[in-house]
Design goal:
heterodimer, A: D-Maltodextrin-Binding Protein, domain 2, 2 domains, globular, B: MetI-like fold, 27 helices
């Protein structure tokens, strides 16, 4: 009796999964499309700017277009992989991953480009503005060694501390420190949350710090920071990861969709392709989320209600 | 309990002289091997020519998988099916839970709890589920529950089959035991990378990592239950002419009921903790909410998602524990039918009333007051507190005066000296087998080429274990000597033991800044409950007659403690040390997310950048480190299970 049940169950499983090969490019999330609702799965990266993109897109998809939205937090590189397999439908803010773009967009064609987000991202080294008032020449990398003792902490030992963030972020800092012969130690906070907490603590006591940071970012509104000028960026100067000795580029942030979703995603896909806003818009939402501690949904609602002219264009 | 010790030919020898003999043997071995080792590499670090570069084969393997995943038959006809089966079953459970709605699920859970454990637990269960809804976490809770149901069923099935094999066949038992022992000491973080490589980010990978993590206790306890069956009963059954199959079904399995249910209990607890950590690889649900909240430094929101996890854990723990303790009554099916009928009725009623979703108006805003409290704490305690100094100052001093010297000291020691110390410690506490395993594991770390970061991690573990033991033994002694302290401590310990490790990370960063000190602090908080528990239990189990005679000889309370209780509780204290080390390692690794650096950072980097070469090597090194630490602190008797 039991054997029959098992046989029947496995036969059912085989039938249900479709005879023959399993399609590894259509691996939807098991939580998608529950109860007949059409679902869009968005990848949220760990920084707040990306959360703002997703929150606003989610609000419009749910309240204006009648979709159900699932969000999954995945790091940047694995998110490409998940997008290629259809586990997520869209990445709304990508900071430039040439290797992945080549592999998935050009070779495998499982991912499609979906245009600019409208925001330009820039990574750099920053010091707090109150420090620049005391030492105006600190914003040139050539003077950093002179001030290394200011940035000393328990973690960096005898050297100055360069605070870095999450391991998932694009960074050349270790190579930069050694190639520019700086008397600094890169200390990885391990996550952006940890890094922000640390920066806020430094700022509250007006202590000097040097940190890897990026714009647009809401933290600038809370802790004014000034960029340290590194040797200017030139096309291709960061090609060899070990020999980088120049600043980071300015990157227009990109959106990407799963190819299948881009073709058959209906109004949701059309909307996500048109989704495009400015740095100020994104910062407004980010500040609501991270500083006033509104939930992403509430922050998105506030923004959407006060900016109809911006988002109406995305739906036309 | 299957205590397998190496039979020592001269049991009567005094422990001291035995220890001396072990050390002497080791010294002789060292005298021969050290000059040899020194000629191979005289530097303090592991000699470079003894390492094996795994980076390029690993990255080419990873590239091969990504390039062939959509086309290769291995994936299309094997892994693809596994993945689809997982997605389908999780989905089915999830839809069923959603269809029952919050009234249905709550009623079902309460009815099952009532059936198994009585009215009080039923009320508590219902309250716990309603609290999940009130925190605004109903849907994520159901997602986690769906994933858990599938993962636990699969773990129990796999564990039961393995345990059955090991319980019936001696050869299989001998082969499986070291594997299961080892799997039990591995930090959860080390499991994630290999499954991600094959299945990619998402629910299937999360479920499989959970099964691999949670199946061993079931296997181990099933085997234990089958082997522990009373031989006289078995003989009686055999003499009645039962076939071996009948013997198994009518005698051995029912006799092993307690162990089976204990196995289920442990499997559920481990699956829950893994389901949270697996949010790093896209498990979704509550763990994902914790992870997302931590990204915006929102301790309140992280707690709001963390509390349902704790509630689920406490409820599931109590229900399965009660099932294990209950006598063998056999009318469960009828009761469960009633429960099911009630659930269906409630679900239908809710559907007719259109109340399947948790009403938005019934949610509490919990995050804000918590965040205000956290802000106040960091504002007032961080730095410049008169006399005692702020928490950040402590962290700085701890780093400069404890962690740095410890790390530099370990890295300054020649590599063969480290191996020698490991061997000596392991042999003194355990047997020559554990010593050999420990030394080999440590050497493997060197061969993998991550000697320096591994020693960095080791220094953090040692510092955290030292702090944990001081605090844990002190609290444990207090709890053992006063019933009131123990009663007050019990719920606190329960909650702290089931909190997801992630939630600890952000408050410690707020208090101690970024670096190794907060990683150590989180590890201490995580490992403390188990240590306190085992210590208190051990002290309480000391033979009352021995205490009585000490008292009659006029010993003061202090003398009783130091000269009678503590020496007699030595096995329990060693067990506490062993558990402390294993738990501390697990969190120190996760501390890589808050600046702990070293191996934990490498694993996080591997996951985050899809850089499997770095991540897998670091993961393997963590495995070796865990193995080494476990074997070094392993008392001769084996322990029963993870946690207390």
């Amino acid at each position: 009796m039991r054997r029959i049940t098992i046989t029947a169950a496995s036969a059912l499983l085989v039938l249900a999964t479709g005879c023959g090969a399993a399609d590894m490019t259509k691996q939807a999330s098991p939580f998608a499309d529950a109860r007949g609702a059409k679902t869009v799965t968005l990848s949220v990266q760990s920084w707040v700017g990306a959360q703002s993109d997703v929150a606003v897109a989610q609000y419009i998809l749910e309240h204006k277009l009648g979709y159900r939205v699932d969000t999954v937090q995945v790091d940047e590189v694995p998110a490409w992989d998940a997008l290629s397999q259809g586990r997520v439908d869209a990445i709304l803010e990508d900071w430039g991953h040439p290797d992945q773009e080549k592999r998935y967009v050009e070779e495998k064609k499982t991912i499609s480009r979906a245009g600019d987000l409208g925001v330009t991202g820039h990574i750099g080294w920053f010091v707090p503005t109150y420090l620049v008032r005391q030492h105006p020449d600190i914003t040139d990398w050539k003077n950093l060694n002179k001030y290394a003792s200011l940035f000393r902490t328990a973690e960096s030992g005898g050297k100055g501390q360069l605070l870095d963030g999450s391991p998932s972020y694009v960074t050349n800092d270790k190579a930069l420190v050694s190639n520019l012969k700086l008397d600094y130690q890169v200390v990885f906070a391990g996550s952006e949350a940890a890094q922000i907490t640390q920066i806020k603590q430094f700022a509250k006591e007006k202590k000097p710090f040097l940190t890897y940071w990026y714009a647009p970012q809401w933290l600038f509104k809370k802790v004014p920071m000034t960029e340290v000028r590194l040797p200017a960026y030139q096309e291709g100067c960061d090609a060899d990861a070990g020999k980088v000795a120049c600043a980071y580029p300015h990157t227009p942030l990109q959106k990407y969709l799963n190819t299948g979703f881009a073709h058959s995603g209906g109004r949701a896909a059309a909307f996500l392709k048109k989704f495009r806003w400015t740095t100020e818009d994104q910062d407004q939402v980010s500040l609501l989320i991270a500083d006033r501690k509104l939930s992403p949904q509430e922050a998105a609602k506030t923004w959407v209600e006060s900016h109809p002219s911006v988002w109406k264009k995305w739906l036309s | 309990m299957a205590t397998i010790t190496v039979p020592s030919p001269r049991r009567v020898a005094l422990p001291t002289s035995r220890a001396a003999r072990k050390l002497l043997t080791l010294a002789v071995a060292a005298a021969i091997l050290v000059p040899l080792a020194n000629s191979r590499g005289a530097s303090a670090a592991w000699p470079h020519h003894l390492t094996v570069g795994l980076a390029s084969p690993l990255s080419s393997a990873s590239n091969w998988v990504i390039d062939n995943r959509d086309t290769h038959p291995l994936f299309l006809y094997f892994f693809g099916y596994i993945s689809n089966a997982v997605v389908l079953t999780v989905r089915a459970v999830y839809l069923a839970l959603l269809a029952a709605g919050w009234p249905g699920v709550t009623v079902l859970a309460a009815a099952v709890a009532h059936r198994v454990a009585g009215t009080r637990l039923a009320v508590a269960t219902a309250a716990a589920f309603l609290a999940c809804g009130a925190l605004g976490m109903w849907v994520p809770t159901m997602q986690t529950l769906a994933l858990m149901v599938v993962a636990v069923l699969a773990s129990v099935a796999v564990g039961f089959v393995l345990g059955l094999g090991a319980g019936l066949s001696d050869r299989l038992h001998r082969a499986l035991r070291p594997v299961l022992d080892t799997m039990q000491v591995l930090p959860a973080f080390a499991y994630l990378l290999p499954v991600v490589l094959v299945f990619g980010i998402g629910v299937p990978a999360a479920v499989l990592a959970t099964v691999v993590y949670a199946a061993p206790p079931m296997a181990r306890l099933t085997a234990l239950g089958l082997r522990g069956a009373d031989p006289e009963v078995l003989e009686a059954v055999e003499s009645l002419g039962a076939t071996s199959r009948q013997r198994l079904l009518t005698a051995r399995l029912p006799l092993a009921r307690r162990e089976l249910l204990l196995g289920l209990n442990q499997t559920i607890m481990m699956a829950l903790s893994m389901a949270v950590i697996a949010s790093v690889i896209g498990a979704g649900g509550l763990g994902d909410r914790v992870y997302q909240a931590l990204a915006s430094v929102d301790v309140g929101a992280a707690l709001a998602a963390g509390i349902p996890i704790v509630l689920l854990a406490v409820v599931l723990d109590r229900i399965t524990a009660a099932a294990g303790d209950r006598g063998d009554t056999r009318q469960a099916p009828v009761g469960l039918l009633y429960a099911l009928a009630a659930t269906v009725a409630v679900a239908l009623a809710a559907r007719l009333l259109g109340r399947l979703d948790w009403p938005a108006a019934w949610t509490l805003d919990f995050a804000e007051p918590v965040n205000r409290a956290v802000d106040w704490m960091t504002a007032h305690l961080y730095s410049g507190v008169p006399v005692v100094g702020g928490t950040a100052d402590w962290a700085g001093h701890f780093t400069t005066w404890v962690l740095d010297p410890l790390r530099d000291g370990l890295q300054w020691l020649p590599w063969w000296a480290v191996l020698l110390v490991v061997a000596a410690l392991a042999w003194l506490i355990g047997t020559w087998r554990t010593a050999l395993t420990a030394v080999l594991a440590m050497a493997a770390i060197g061969v993998l080429g991550v000697w320096e970061p591994a020693l960095d991690t080791l220094s953090q573990v040692l510092a955290a274990v030292a702090v944990t033991l001081v605090l844990g033994f002190a609290t444990g002694v207090a709890a053992a000597r006063s019933d009131r302290v123990e009663r007050a401590l019990r719920p606190v310990l329960d909650v702290f033991q089931t909190m997801p490790q992630f939630v600890y990370l952000i408050p410690v960063v707020a208090l101690f800044g970024v670096g190794r000190a907060p990683a150590v602090a989180a590890a201490v908080v995580y490992a403390l409950p188990a240590v306190v528990r085992i210590t208190a239990q051990g002290l309480r189990q000391v033979d009352p007659a021995a205490l009585e005679s000490a008292r009659s000889l006029g010993a003061t309370g202090r003398q009783q403690l130091w000269q009678v209780q503590l020496p007699l509780a030595r096995p329990a204290l060693l067990l506490a040390l062993n558990q402390g080390v294993v738990l501390v390692l697990a969190v120190v690794i996760i501390g890589g997310l808050v600046g702990g650096g070293a191996l934990g950072y490498d694993v996080a980097l591997g996951l985050a950048q899809g850089d499997l070469a770095t991540g897998l090597v670091a993961g393997a090194a963590i495995v070796c480190l865990g193995l080494m630490l476990d074997r070094v602190t392993q008392p001769t008797e084996r322990r029963t299970g993870k946690g207390a």
